[in-house]
Amino acid sequence: MRQNESGIDTVATLRERLGEVPALLVTGDTGPELVEAVERSGLPLLHKPVSLGRLRQAMARALETREEPTGPAPQAQPQLHLVRP
């Protein structure tokens, strides 16, 4: 993210450029202002610490519910692999 840019802003910029890409936010901030902003954005929100199982579930849900991209066609679909430390 750029300085003074929120995750919500970053997702909005990506979606302007690439279409409806799947996204979710992970943060340690539990302040009411952030929670309200995320609710308005419609993005899924996870609060740290997040278990690996919960993160995988949220990512799978985001990928399942995404709409077809409206932006330029991607060159290749990257594969996501979570590696446990």
Compose a concise summary of this entry.
With 85 residues, the chain is mainly α. It contains 3 helices and 2 strands, in the order αβαβα.
Helix content: 40-55%
Rounded to the nearest angstrom, the distance between the terminal CA atoms is: 24 Å
Model regions low in confidence, pLDDT < 50 over at least 5 residues: none
| Assembly classification | single chain
What sort of overall outline do the alpha carbons produce when their principal axes are compared?
Answer: globular
Q: Determine the mean pLDDT.
A: 84
Q: How many DSSP helices?
A: 3
Please describe the structure with a list of short key phrases separated by commas or semicolons.
42% helix; 85 residues; 3 helices; single chain; mainly alpha; two-stranded parallel ribbon; 2 strands
Q: What does this entry look like structurally?
A:
Strands 1-2 form a two-stranded parallel sheet. Helix content is 42%, strand content 7%. The chain contains 3 helices and 2 strands. The protein has helices at residues 7-18, 32-41, 52-65; strands spanning 25-27, 45-47. The radius of gyration is 14 Å and the shape is globular. It starts with 6 loop residues before the first helix and ends in a 20-residue tail after the last helix. It has a domain at 7-65. The mean pLDDT is 84. The relative contact order is 0.19. The chain is mainly alpha-helical and 85 residues long.
Topology:
Blueprint (H helix, E strand, L loop, with lengths): L6 H12 L6 E3 L4 H10 L3 E3 L4 H14 L20
